[in-house]
Amino acid sequence: MSTRDWLLADSPTSRLQANVGRAYRVFTALMRNPLSVLGGAIILVLLLTAAFAPWIAPYSAVGQDLANRLMPPSAAHWMGTDELGRDIFSRVVWGSQITLTIVLLVALISAPLGLLIGAIAGYFGGWVDRILMGFTDIFLSLPKLILALAFVAALGPGINNAIIAIAITSWPAYARIARAETLTIRNAEYIQAVQLAGGGPIRLIVQHVLPLCTSSMIIRVTLDMAGVILTAAGLGFIGLGAQPPLPEWGAMISRGRTFILDQWWVATMPGFAIIIVSLGFCFLGDGLRDVLDPKSEGKN
Amino acid sequence: MNAIDLTNLDIAYGDTKVVFDVNLSIPEGESFALVGESGSGKSTILRAIAGLAPDWTGDISVMGEARSHHVDRNVSRKVQMVFQDPYGSLHPRKTIDAALSEPLAIHGLGNRGERVEAMLTAVGLDQRFRFRFPHQLSGGQRQRVAIARALMLEPKVMLLDEPTSALDVSVQAEILNLLKRLRREQGLTFLMVTHNLPVVSFLCDRLAVMRHGRIVEIADVAQLKSGDLKEPYSRELLAATEGG
Amino acid sequence: MAAPLLTVENLRVSFPTHTGRVEVVKGLSFTLGRERLGIVGESGSGKSMTGRSILKLIRKPGEVTADMLEFDGVDILSQSEKQMRAIRGARISMVMQDPKFSLNPVMTVGEQIAEALVTHQKLPRRDVQARIIEMLHAVRINDPERVAKLYPHEVSGGMGQRIMIAMMLIPEPELLIADEPTSALDVSVQAQVLDIIDELVRNKGMGLILISHDLNLVSRYCDRILVMNGGRVVEECAAGQLENAQHPYTRGLLAAMPVINETRDELPVLDRTQWAGT
C-alpha cells in the first residue's frame, strides 16, 4: 500500500491515520488553488531566508562602508546601498528574521488569547459575556495604530515592546470572531450530547468548541499577518519600533524617505519586501479559507 | 419501580410557558410515545428530563430518584438522549471513535477501545467505520453512531427525539428495527417523541397525545391500531396520517 | 396525444469529485402533459436534481446534458440565462421545501407577491393589489388584507408555504415543480397545502411535477408516478397501481413503511447491494 493510499484510506485503522489523512486532504485541496500555492511559496521563501540569512546575505547587515554610500543597484550590491553604505539586499535578508519574529509572536500571543476570551464569553453568555465583550469593545473602539503607539510610548520604543503593543491591539478582533462562532456552536446537538454525558464547561470549551473555532481563526490570523507587518513597519517608520541599526523593513523605509527623489532604491527595496510578504500571507489566507471553512466541510 | 415520573410538570423557555401541568408515569421497560404537532411541547418534556431545559417546576424522577434542574453526571448514567438530526448531532471534526470514547472518558471508565468496538457491533456498524469522520457516513449510519453514543454509559432510559424523521423510509426501517432489538436485548425504557403514528404503532406500548403544551389523552397502542382514540383531537391526528 | 408540455430525453446531471465526474441523474426520459406527475425517491436518487435541471438551476461545476429538454417547443438547454429568467416564474414555477429560506425576510408578504407578479406582467397598481388579495384567498388565507402586511417571520410554517404557493402561482405558470413542498410542515397542515396545490393545478389546467420521498403522498396527489433510485427511473406506473408495483426496489420501499395497524415484529429492510447505483 502506497503512502497516498494510506493517507486517503476510506476506513482508517487508527486515530492517527484519520487525523493525518484529514490534514493531507486539506493540503491537496490547497495545492489545487494556484494563488494559495504562490502564497505558500512566498511564505516558504521567507522562512528559508530567515533560517539561512547568514549564508544568503553577502554582506553584514550593520557593517558600514562610507566610501560606497547610496550606490544604485549593481552586480556587487543587488539592491544598492544606503546612506551609510550598507548593502540593502543583506539588510532585507536579515530583516526577514525580524519580520518573522514579529508575525509569529503576535500570532502566538493574540490568537489564543482572543480565542479563549471569545469562547468563554460566548459559551457562558450572561454577565460573563457582557463584561468580557465590554472590555473587548473598548479595545476595538480605538484605532489600532494609535493604540499601539500609545502602548509603545508607555513601554518605551523597541522591537519587543512593539510586538507586545501589536498583540495587545489585535486580540479583540479574534475574540469577536470566536464569540460569534461559539454562539452558533453552543446550542448544537453534539455539544448537548456531551453535556448529557456529564461533560463540564472546561472540557466542552477546550475540546469541542475551540477546535471548531480554530479554522476560522487560522484563516483570519493569516489574513491579518499582512496588517501586522504593516503596523510593525509603521511603528518602525515613526521610530517607535525596531531601533537602528536593526534592519527592520519599516525602519529602513523611514531612513530612505530622505533620499526618495534621488536614490529611490533605498526606500523602495524594503517596500517591495513588505508588499510581497503581505501578499503571500493574503493569498495563503484566501486559499485556507476555501479549504478550511467548516461550511464547505464534507463536500469533498 | 417507574423509570420516569413526571408530577405537575410546568416548563418555560424564558418568559413563555410551553408545557402545562403534565403528569406521567412510565414503568421500567415500557416504550412510551409523545405525539403531537410541532410546538405542542413534546420535545421540551424530553429536554427537561435530560436536563437541557432547566426552567421547570414540579417533579421529575428518573429511576425513582428526583433529578435536579441541571445536567448532572449521576443522571447521565441513567438516562441518555438521541437527537432528531443525525447531521447536527455529531461533532464534525471528531472521529466516530472519539465521539464514542468521550462519555467513557468523562466518567473515567476503562477499556475504552474494547467498549467502542463492542458498541459498534451492537448497533450494526462495521469496525472500519471506527476512525471515520461524520461526513464520511450516511444519515442512517450517523444515527446508528448517535444511538451508540447514547448507549455507551449503559443507561436504563433512552429519550428519543424524532429519531427517524430525518431519514429515508428504508433507512428508517433499519433504525426502527435496531431500536426494537436494543430495547429487547438491554431491557431499555424508551420515551420517544414523534409525529409519525405508524412508527408509534411499530415501536411503542403506550402513547400520550399532546396539544398546546398539555396532554390531551393517554392511550394504549392497541387503541391506536383499532382507531379507538377518545379525544377528537387525537382522532384528527389519526385521520391526517391515514390521509382520509 | 397533443404535443406534450415538457419532453425530457436522456437527461444527465453530473458533478466533479476528486475521483472524476459522478453522474447523479443517469439518462432520465419522460414526457409531461397537463397532468400531475410524481417523482419519488430517497435522498441521493437524483429527484431534486431532475427538478432543478428543468429550470436550469444547476450551478457550476455541475453539468446538465440531454438529447432533448423541451418545454412547450422551447429548447431549455440552449436558452441564455436572461431568456431563462423570463421563463422561470412566468411559465415554470418552483415551490421549495422550506418557506423560511425562500421568503425574503425584509419584505412584507404582499410586496413579495407583488414583485413576483409585476416582474412578468405590467399591471396598474390597483389591479396588482386586487390580484394579490384574490390569490391569498385562493390559498385559503382568511384575512388576506392583514396577512399581506405581515413579514415572513410573523407567519407560521404552513402559512409561509401557502404564501410561497401564492407567489409561485400568481403569474399563472403552465408548469409547477414542487420539490418536497410539505416535508417541513406538520401532518395536518401537509394535507391542507397539498389540497390547495391540487385544486389550483386542476382549475388552471397546469402541469405539476411533485417531487417527494413519500410514496403515499405522491400516489394520493398525482396521476402518474416515476420511482427513482440511483439516478435512474426504476418504475413508472399510474398512481392507483402502486400496490401492483413490479420492481423490487418499489416493493421494498412500500414494505419498509410501518403502518398504523402494525403487526410485524420486524420491518423488512432493502437489500441495497442489488440496485446500488454508486
What is the topology?
The complex is a heterotrimer of chains A (300), B (244) and C (278).
Chain A: H1 3-8, H2 15-31, H3 34-51, H4 53-56, H5 88-124, H6 126-140, H7 144-155, H8 159-186, H9 189-196, H10 201-238, H11 249-256, H12 265-292
Chain B: E1 2-13, E2 16-27, E3 31-35, H1 42-50, E4 56-62, E5 65-66, H2 73-76, E6 79-82, H3 96-106, H4 112-122, H5 139-151, E7 157-161, H6 169-186, E8 189-194, H7 197-203, E9 206-211, E10 214-220, H8 221-225, H9 232-242
Chain C: E1 6-17, E2 20-32, E3 36-40, H1 47-54, E4 63-65, E5 68-71, E6 74-75, H2 81-87, E7 92-95, H3 99-102, H4 109-118, H5 125-138, H6 144-147, H7 157-169, E8 175-179, H8 187-204, E9 207-212, H9 215-221, E10 224-229, E11 232-238, H10 248-256
Parallel strand pairs in C: 3-9, 3-10, 7-8, 8-9
Antiparallel strand pairs in C: 1-2, 1-4, 1-5, 5-6, 10-11
Would you kindly provide a written description of the structure presented here, covering whatever features stand out?
The complex is a heterotrimer of chains A (300), B (244) and C (278). With 300 residues, chain A is an all-alpha fold. Chain A contains twelve helices and no strands. Chain A has helices at residues 3-8, 15-31, 34-51, 53-56, 88-124, 126-140, 144-155, 159-186, 189-196, 201-238, 249-256, 265-292. The mean pLDDT of chain A is 85. Chain B is α/β, with parallel strands linked by helices and 244 residues long. In chain B, α3 packs across α4 (112-122) and α5 packs parallel to α6. Chain B starts with a strand and ends with a helix. Chain C is of the alpha/beta class. The longest helix of chain C is centred in the last third of the chain and has 18 residues, at 187-204. The model of chain C has no long low-confidence stretch (mean pLDDT 85). The chains are: A mainly alpha (300), B alpha/beta (244), C alpha/beta (278). Chains in contact: A-B, B-C. The interface between A and B is medium-sized, with 29 and 39 residues.
Q: Which strand order spans the largest sheet of chain C, edge to edge or round the barrel?
A: 7-8-9-3-10-11
Residue windows where pLDDT falls under 50 for at least 5 positions of chain B:
none
Arithmetic mean of pLDDT of chain C: 85
List the helices and strands of chain C in order. Answer: EEEHEEEHEHHHHHEHEHEEH
Strand content of chain C: 15-25%
Query: What's the shape of chain B?
Result: globular
What is the percent of helical residues of chain B?
Answer: 25-40%
Tell me the Rg of chain C in angstroms: 20 Å
Characterize the main sheet of chain B: 6 strands, mixed
Output mean pLDDT of chain B. Answer: 90
Give the strand tally of chain B.
10
- Class per helix and strand makeup of chain B: alpha/beta
Assembly level: heterotrimer
CATH architecture of chain B: 3-Layer(aba) Sandwich
Continuous helix count of chain C = 10
Stretches of chain C where pLDDT is under 50 for at least 5 consecutive residues are none
Structural class of chain C: alpha/beta
